[in-house]
C-alpha cells in the first residue's frame, strides 16, 4: 500500500492542478481527494514491495526444487525403461 506521505503528496498535487477559483477550496478538495484515493487503492488489494519480493523468492526456490525433481524422475524413468539392464 502507498505510505500516507505519498498519498498526501499525490492528493496535494491533484488539488493544486485545479483551476485558480477552485484552489481556494484546496484544503477541502485535498482531504476529499486523499479519502477517495485511499478508498480506491484499498479496493485494489495491493501488496507491499516487501511481500512481493518474499513471494518471488519463494517461487524461485520452488521452481529450482521442481527442476531438480523433474531431472530425478527423468533419470529414474530412463533407468526403468524396457530393454535396459536392471529394468526387470
From TrEMBL:
<comment type="similarity">
    <text>Belongs to the UbiK family.</text>
</comment>
<protein>
    <recommendedName>
        <fullName>Ubiquinone biosynthesis accessory factor UbiK</fullName>
    </recommendedName>
</protein>
<comment type="pathway">
    <text>Cofactor biosynthesis; ubiquinone biosynthesis.</text>
</comment>
<keyword id="KW-0831">Ubiquinone biosynthesis</keyword>
<comment type="function">
    <text>Required for efficient ubiquinone (coenzyme Q) biosynthesis. UbiK is probably an accessory factor of Ubi enzymes and facilitates ubiquinone biosynthesis by acting as an assembly factor, a targeting factor, or both.</text>
</comment>
<dbReference type="Pfam" id="PF04380">
    <property type="entry name" value="BMFP"/>
</dbReference>
<dbReference type="GO" id="GO:0006744">
    <property type="term" value="P:ubiquinone biosynthetic process"/>
</dbReference>
<keyword id="KW-0963">Cytoplasm</keyword>
<dbReference type="InterPro" id="IPR007475">
    <property type="entry name" value="UbiK"/>
</dbReference>
<dbReference type="GO" id="GO:0005829">
    <property type="term" value="C:cytosol"/>
</dbReference>
Amino acid at each position: 500500500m502507498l505510505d500516507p506521505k505519498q498519498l498526501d503528496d499525490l492528493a496535494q498535487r491533484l488539488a493544486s492542478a485545479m483551476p485558480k477559483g477552485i484552489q481556494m477550496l484546496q484544503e477541502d478538495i485535498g482531504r476529499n481527494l486523499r479519502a477517495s484515493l485511499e478508498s480506491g487503492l484499498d479496493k485494489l488489494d495491493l501488496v507491499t514491495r516487501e511481500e512481493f519480493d518474499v513471494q518471488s523468492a519463494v517461487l524461485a526456490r520452488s521452481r529450482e526444487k521442481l527442476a531438480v525433481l523433474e531431472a530425478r524422475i527423468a533419470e529414474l524413468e530412463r533407468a526403468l525403461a524396457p530393454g535396459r539392464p536392471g529394468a526387470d
